[in-house]
Design brief:
- This protein is of the alpha/beta class.
- It has 3 domains: about 210 residues, P-loop containing nucleotide triphosphate hydrolases (Rossmann fold, 3-Layer(aba) Sandwich), CATH 3.40.50.300; about 55 residues; about 180 residues, P-loop containing nucleotide triphosphate hydrolases (Rossmann fold, 3-Layer(aba) Sandwich), CATH 3.40.50.300.
- It has 14 helices and 17 strands.
- A hairpin with a 4-residue loop joins β8 and β9.
- The longest helix has about 35 residues.
- It is globular, with a radius of gyration of 26 Å.
- GO terms for molecular function: ATP binding; ATP hydrolysis activity.
- InterPro entries: AAA+_ATPase, ABC_transporter-like_ATP-bd, ABC_transporter-like_CS, ABCF, P-loop_NTPase.
Length: about 475
């Protein structure tokens, strides 16, 4: 590939099953050493493109040419469940096809790059969500690939982690392609954008930074809308004239027929304008009234320098009280939330007969072998079919998804199922651990409004300041202080 391209798609087509085309005769190339953003609507096939590049799946038609000397590594969105019981050493050994001798020094070096410090015999599942995000990144970097593919790498990362990752990508001298919903993060390094058009099934290349590409795409949509408006006007004029001439009879009927044919031709020539992703409906998480104190926290335990530290505190949550838990990755926020949700946290007491709604960032509260329907039905005190289906539809869980197994959903769809569960559960106490992860950014204002208006007691952990600003917070507990 002498023209400087390290990846080239030539007339590539791909389908998911028989009824879902993803790509149709797609052409694009990526130059060696470039920093590229891969963007598109939910379900457009961004992760599919990554799998085609790595060779995990094959195109139905066309050719994908990768520089034969180039190595490829992927940092996925989540650590596979079967890897959670592995030690750090075993986890990194999985990154290589062949056995790597004396791997410990390599692990130590790469963990420094992602600003994570841990012994190599520590179990993966013991790490926080943010630390697992760093492990995923490190598992790709340790391979020192010529092509680095990052799928939502900022999920779970705190501010410091995002800054660290941004600096790394800017200094990375090899090819990097990133999928992310974090606009500021993308704009800091992007030199070009590959945009998956979900309607034409093509990939469009835009040169420039991320914000430049978004402006160009918006301008193209406006142009398509104007063009269609002109077509609509002419189509209506032709139909009106055709109706007029048809009533005249004789030769005028032939003219009317020709005008109808022209109107049909113009309708076929209308551009399929890219529409916005569908957005979830506004929703409310019902609060069955509870009087008095719902939750009391008199002490909590966190990790500092790999040691447990217990701190005294006085937090009392009643109805309409929202608590924000803050602190850096690895201090133990998720562990604390889990122990509170299970009623096992020392120094914490939940009042009797309190129903707890727990949104966990890794979705491990969901049964991956259950269907969506059964998962939603299981949390309802009284099964009402109409209510279940109405709530599901509001979260874009359509009839073709509702009998799908949870494990076969995308991460974003699992998040919407988890929120639908909370609505049907009707909790007194809401515990939310990074509820923005994997969720389409268009849904976030609606989710924020629902949490802001929630009338029960709530504990929230989120590393997304723009999201937190939209929610009423009555008290903040910084675990790092």
């Amino acid at each position: 590939m002498s023209d400087g391209a390290v990846i080239r798609f030539n007339k590539v087509s791909f389908n998911h099953g028989h009824n879902k085309p993803i790509l149709d005769e797609v052409d694009f190339s990526v130059r060696r050493g470039s920093k590229i953003t891969l963007m598109g609507q939910n379900g457009a096939g961004k992760s599919t493109v990554f799998k085609l590049i790595t060779g995990e799946i094959k195109p139905a038609e066309g050719a994908i040419n990768i520089d034969p000397k180039a190595t490829i590594a992927v940092s996925k969105q989540v650590i596979p469940r079967e890897y959670l019981e592995l030690t750090i050493r075993e986890f990194f050994e999985k990154s290589f096809k062949e056995k790597v001798y004396d791997i410990d020094p390599k692990i130590e070096k790469i963990l420094k790059v992602v600003n994570l410090h841990a012994p190599n015999d520590r179990i993966v599942k013991s790490f926080s969500g943010g630390q697992q995000a760093r492990l995923l990144l490190a598992s790709a970097l340790i391979q020192d690939p010529d092509i680095l593919l990052l799928d939502e790498p900022t999920n779970n990362l705190d501010k410091e982690g995002v800054v660290h990752l941004t600096k790394f990508i800017l200094n990375y001298e090899k090819t990097c392609i990133v999928i992310s919903h974090d606009a500021d993060f993308l704009n800091s390094f992007t030199q070009g954008v590959l945009y998956l058009n979900i309607f034409t099934l093509k990939i469009e290349l835009y040169v420039g930074n991320y914000f430049d590409a978004v402006k160009l795409i918006s301008a193209q949509i406006q142009k398509e809308n104007r063009k269609n408006a002109q077509f609509d006007k002419k189509i209506q004029e032709n139909k009106d004239k055709a109706n007029f001439f048809a009533m005249k009879g004789g030769r005028m009927r032939l003219l009317a027929k020709r005008m109808r044919e022209e109107a049909s031709e113009m309708e076929e020539n209308k551009v399929e304008v890219r529409r916005e992703d569908k957005t979830i409906r506004p929703f409310t998480i019902p609060f069955p009234n509870a009087t008095g104190e719902i939750l009391n926290i008199s002490s909590f335990t966190v990790l500092k320098d790999h040691k447990q530290v217990t701190k005294k505190v006085q937090v009392s949550l009643k109805k309409n009280r929202h608590l924000l838990l803050s602190g850096p990755n690895g201090i133990g926020k998720s562990t604390l939330l889990e122990s509170i949700a299970k009623g096992e946290a020392e120094g914490t007491k939940i009042a009797e007969d309190i129903k707890v709604g727990y949104y966990r960032q890794d979705f491990s509260t969901l049964d991956f072998d259950e269907t969506v329907y059964d998962s939603l039905s299981s949390v309802m005190e009284k099964h009402v079919e109409e209510e279940l289906r109405s709530v599901a539809a509001g979260f874009l869980i359509t009839k073709d998804l509702i009998y799908t197994k949870i494990g076969n959903l995308s991460e974003g769809q699992k998040g919407l199922v988890a929120f639908a569960q909370l609505v049907l559960l009707k909790p007194n106490l809401l515990i939310l651990d990074e509820p923005t992860n994997h969720i389409n950014f268009r849904h976030l204002p609606i989710i924020a409004k629902a949490l802001d208006q929630y009338e029960g007691a709530m504990i929230l952990v989120s590393h997304v300041p723009e999201f937190v600003k939209q929610i009423r917070i009555d008290e903040t507990l910084d675990l790092g202080k």
